[in-house]
Design goal:
255 residues; alpha/beta; TIM Barrel; 6-stranded parallel β-sheet; two-stranded parallel ribbon; 10 helices; 12% strand; globular
Amino acid sequence: MGVINVTPDSFSDGGKNLDPKVAANSGRRMINEGADIIDVGGESTRPGHIPLDSATEKSRVLPVIKELKKEKTALISIDSYKASTAREALKAGADIINDVWGFQRDPQMAHVAAETGAPSILMHNRDSDDDRIDILSDVLRFLEKSLKIARLAGVVDDQIMLDPGFGFGKNAQQNLHILKNLKVISSLGFPVLIGLSRKRFIGFYSGQTETTARLPGTLSANLLAILSGNTACIRVHDIREHREMLDFYESFTRD
């Protein structure tokens, strides 16, 4: 999954793709480099971000989704926790809902997923980190609640993927603990997506403060996640490099 943030303030590529034409071209490049899914978001979710109204969010993402839909060679996910944005994005051509609040921020989001049949990614989130908690237990409780909301709305299990939410309300040690224990997340019985790309905790352990300098650490972390056998999808900024890594890994493991 390739990341396209149509925002001025995202932590890694804020401002780079704010122009819808530039964003669409970035998505096309990612598709050409081997992305299977393009994740389009219009609101930054970095720590301390300013919440965005749905009208502005839609004005950012809908033109990009419409352009990328013309490619017909990759799926498109809408990165939003707002039901009205998700509904319009699906009408514009998006295939997947990627909700960073796991259907728990907007009570209508699960109903949009159920009514449209759109596959949905439910992510764990917290407003702030707390080093006193058992982070794995917190992730499990949150995702179990998200699953209950989804099922009550009529979303079927085989349309759901889970995301432990690396970097969202977690400190560096907690993020690393989750990475070491992805089997606990997959024990819920759903495919797992991980979004490690360029995250602050990668820099914490690699010593890199610049987001674009965190590629080696990101590649290492994603490979460890894949080797765990508990990862179905990786969400990344650097498609070409990850595709080359995956191609080599698949060649190495091929009989």
